[in-house]
Design goal:
Elements (H helix, E strand, L loop, with lengths): L3 E2 L15 E8 L2 E7 L5 E8 L6 E8 L24 E10 L4 E9 L8 E7 L7 E6 L9 E5 L5 E7 L4 E7 L6 E8 L5 E9 L2 E8 L8 E6 L10 E3 L8 E8 L2 E8 L11 E10 L2 E4 L4 E2 L2
Antiparallel strand pairs: 1-22, 2-3, 3-4, 4-5, 6-7, 7-8, 8-9, 10-11, 11-12, 12-13, 14-15, 15-16, 16-17, 18-19, 19-20, 20-21
Bound molecules: (2R,3S,4R,5S)-2-(hydroxymethyl)piperidine-3,4,5-triol.
């Protein structure tokens, strides 16, 4: 049986390396769509699709320096290039489909391309999962810093944006507006002073689990998770998951496939040229006696 090797740069059906780091997968109709960072050339976010999570077809560079820009009602700054023409920094893109508007809405961590002081989030949207997204600019939700982030869509369609605030000390949970284009309410400031990055959420049998990492730049560290009976309900304190390097990875997102839970992460190789050697991992998750566990494996299939 064909398997994907954990830690390697997985390849698409043409044999080319997949550039979708810090990513996110959604299922829409018969396809899984994988969105992630693509730092080559003038690209920011790329999209691949698959019917089985094993064979990936490249679809589009959905966000680039040339993407169409359109102002939006939130106070946003439309900036896809630095003043000197260089690229800005867009990390950890996540996309949700909004049933009410029929739009695919992307949220991504924005930095100015020089340092990490902007600590903002940018929003873009599109009528199709893999079309050219329209960029609506970046902002600080309620004025807060916003770095590593994720999106989560609940069963009733309510969506949440979760991001590291206060110089990464706290993890904020924002309920989104019905169209997913803005924050509507800050519902939690979780794990204050614990410096959690790389949040990833899943719901399983009525319980919500959020895995995150500690802040050690591009180096892996001990993953931890908390759980709750609802996104807006109280969350438990943090418990460890995986080993002291989360099996050499940092969380990207969590996914349920045919009733089984999986953790997807990045095995980063730093920010320089080696960034492009950053690999992907997927490890099975299981809930045993109310405890979430992650199983190490060299290779994976779904
Ligand atoms: C860890 C974050 O999770 C990554 O997305 C990236 O921002 C690096 N830090 C930068 O050091």
């Amino acid at each position: 049986m064909e398997k994907l090797k954990n830690g390697e740069v997985w390849r698409d059906v043409e044999g080319k390396e997949i550039h979708a780091h810090g990513g996110y997968i959604i299922k829409h109709q018969e396809y899984y769509y994988w969105y992630g960072e693509d730092r080559r050339e003038n690209f920011y976010v790329s999209c691949y699709r698959s019917e089985d999570l094993m064979h990936w077809e490249f679809r589009n560079h959905i966000l680039t320096t040339e993407s169409k820009m359109e102002g939006y009602r939130v106070r946003t700054k439309l900036m896809l290039r630095k003043e000197d023409g260089g690229k800005v920094n867009l990390e950890r893109p996540k996309v949700l489909y909004n049933e009410k508007t029929g739009k695919f809405v992307l949220w991504v961590h924005f930095e100015n391309g020089t340092d990490y002081r902007e600590a903002a989030v940018a929003v873009a949207d599109c009528d199709t999962p893999d079309g050219d997204f329209v960029y609506h600019g970046h902002f600080n939700p309620y004025g807060y810093m916003s770095r590593d982030c994720t999106l989560f869509k609940d069963d009733d369609g309510t969506a949440y944006f979760i991001s590291a605030a206060r110089d990464n000390a706290d993890l904020h949970v924002y309920r989104l507006s019905e169209d997913y284009m803005n924050v509507d309410c800050l519902v939690h400031r979780l794990w204050q002073g614990e410096y959690r990055e790389a949040p990833a959420v899943i719901r399983h049998e009525g319980i919500y689990y959020m895995i995150s990492s500690f802040c050690t730049g591009w180096d892996p560290n001990q993953g931890k998770y908390g759980q709750a009976k609802g996104m807006e309900q109280p969350w438990t304190s943090l418990r460890e998951i995986g080993d002291e390097t989360t099996y050499q990875s940092q969380a990207a997102f969590l996914l349920e496939v045919n009733g089984r839970l999986y953790y997807f992460g990045d095995r980063w190789r730093g920010s320089g040229e080696n960034y492009f050697r950053s690999g992907y991992v997927a490890y099975p998750l299981e809930v045993k006696d109310g405890v979430l566990t992650m199983e190490y494996c060299e290779e994976i299939s779904f």
